[in-house]
């Protein structure tokens, strides 16, 4: 069950609540896929301001919310910064090979299309 303990805690689905269709939907958007690729490359937590997306701040906030609510990322406040981390262990346990395959395919596509 999704829980929130304080006004600064953000709701996340519990591991057993993460659904494949929600993950696939979250990763179907190019901006969200870019966020996940950067998180996977870094391997740790990154602030929202780290990401240089060609969209408005409100749209960026929406993308992070979709990723969080689908269970792809975890967001936590550290002081005033909202930190983002990939829920790789949860995703790999629930859907073995899925994230690695999607990230590999995204990297090949970016190379083919000349993107980052």
Outline the structure in words.
This protein has 116 residues and is of the alpha+beta class. It has one domain: Arc Repressor Mutant, subunit A (Orthogonal Bundle), CATH 1.10.10.10. 50% of the residues lie in helices and 13% in strands. It has 5 helices and 3 strands. The protein has a 3-stranded antiparallel beta sheet with strand order 1-3-2. A hairpin with a 2-residue loop joins strand 2 and strand 3. Helix 1 packs antiparallel against helix 3. The radius of gyration is 14 Å and the shape is globular. It starts with 19 loop residues before the first helix and ends with a helix. The mean pLDDT is 90. Keywords: DNA-binding, Transcription, Transcription regulation. GO terms for molecular function: DNA binding; DNA-binding transcription factor activity. It comes from Streptomyces colonosanans. This is Transcriptional regulator. InterPro entries: ArsR-like_HTH, HTH_ArsR_DNA-bd_dom, HTH_MetalResp_TranReg, WH-like_DNA-bd_sf, WH_DNA-bd_sf.
């Amino acid at each position: 069950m999704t829980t929130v303990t304080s006004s600064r805690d953000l709701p996340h689905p519990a591991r057993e609540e993460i659904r494949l269709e929600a993950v696939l939907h979250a990763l179907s958007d190019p901006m969200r896929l870019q966020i996940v690729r950067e998180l996977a490359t870094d391997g740790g937590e990154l602030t929202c301001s780290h990401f240089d997306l060609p969209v408005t701040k409100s749209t960026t906030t929406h993308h992070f919310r979709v990723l969080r609510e689908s269970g792809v990322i975890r967001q936590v406040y550290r002081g005033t910064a909202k930190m983002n981390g990939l829920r790789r262990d949860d995703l790999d346990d629930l859907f073995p090979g899925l994230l690695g395959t999607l990230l590999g395919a995204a990297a090949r596509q970016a190379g083919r299309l000349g993107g980052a």
